[in-house]
Amino acid sequence: MRPDKVIPLNDARNKIHRKIEELAKRRGHNAAELGIAESIPESGLLDSPSLLELIIWFENEFGLEIDQDQLTLENFGTIDAMAAYAENAAA
Amino acid sequence: MPDPLYTPRVNNNDDSVRLTGFLVQPGASVKQGDPVADVETDKASFSVEADRDGYLLAFCFQVGETIAVGSVLAWIGSSADEAVPSATSVTTADTRTGTPTLKAAMLLSQYGLAARHVPPSGERLSAGDVERFIEKRGLAPAAALPHSAPEPGQKRELSPPARGMLRTVSWHKSDAVPGYLEISWDPKPWADYSAAFQKDNRLLMNPLLSLLAWRLARAAVDYPILHSTVFADQAWQYDHVNLGFTVQAGANLMVVVVREAEKLDQAVFVSKLAGLQRAAMKNTLKPEESSGATIGFSSMARWPVTRHVPVLLPNTAIMIAHTAPSAESACMGATYDHRVLNGEDVVNALRIITTPPAGDEA
Question: With an 8 Å Cβ cutoff, are B274 and A76 in contact?
Answer without folding.
Answer: no
